[in-house]
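Customer ticket, subject: "Can you confirm the structure for Stage II sporulation protein M?"

Message body: Hello, I'm evaluating your service for our small team and ran a test protein. I'd like someone to confirm that this is what the system normally returns, since I don't have a reference to compare against.
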Amino acid sequence: MREPVFIKRNTPRWQAIEDNPTRDPDELTERYIELTDDLSYARTFYPESAVTRYLNGLAAQMHRGLMQSKREDSSRFITFWQYELPLLFRQSHRLLAVSFIIFFVACLLGWVSAANDDTFVRLIMGDDYVNMTLENIKKGDPLGVYGGSDQATMFLQITLNNIYVSLRTFVLGLVASFGTIAVLFSNGVMLGSFQYFFYEQGLLLESVLKIWIHGTLEISAIIIAGCAGLTLGNSLLFPGTYSRRESFVRGARQGLKICVGLVPIFIAAGFLESFVTRLTLHPAVSLAIILSSAAFIIWYFIIYPIRLNTVRQP
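Agent reply: Thanks for trying us out. I re-ran your input and got the following:
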């Protein structure tokens, strides 16, 4: 974006900040976030410009106001989860739909492939896992794999692995989005074949009520991480009116914030898988956890961003 266009586009908002000061800590924090984003952009593309010096002075003034409010740290944290992430995610709903469709189609292909090829599940899941599960089925504990490890160690390993997978899914978006698509596709095929395996053994409902206690959050987060990766990849493929570099910077920032927003989701999923999935729960309790997790994902990542964006429209 050329500097005159950048200035013209944002001057009314900067002027409003100066002409209408506020003492409300939350409003001040929100304005400060927007202003520092502008300042970061200006420092990147117009480092020697007068507008950069102007924004730096205005940001410093607002920072002093935040320090005086004595709520800077807590307000920033709350603002990120309450406003910044949902509003940012609203811009990614189209790519979220694309990520979901890729994953869902891959699940169907995994299911159909497993149904038509007796060796497919072993190819995808591995002989060791299939043999172990078949042995557990004979023992009357088909999902005994979830109870075989120390809970605290399992929680740490699962959480770190899930965070790694989400970051990898995001970073692979650099390969023109195809890397992210490949990760989504492979995970979808694995899930589809995995569920068919239990269906073939007559244990589909039992597996769903067990696995999806943690899987609802875990799979949802992978799809959302796919959205972040597509955001990064599309910023390179389709820069629009921005320069490719500028578009990449914006896409990388947006995608990374989405990934950061997933960390609590993966922590919750890791906790459920390590401490809850292994328990023998009444089906109603399992179903309540699954539906509650699904309701949270749909509300926070889809419904709430739409409502928040509508309310904040001028």
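A couple of notes from the result: Residues 88-311 form one domain. The two ends are 24 Å apart (CA to CA). Feel free to reply with more questions.
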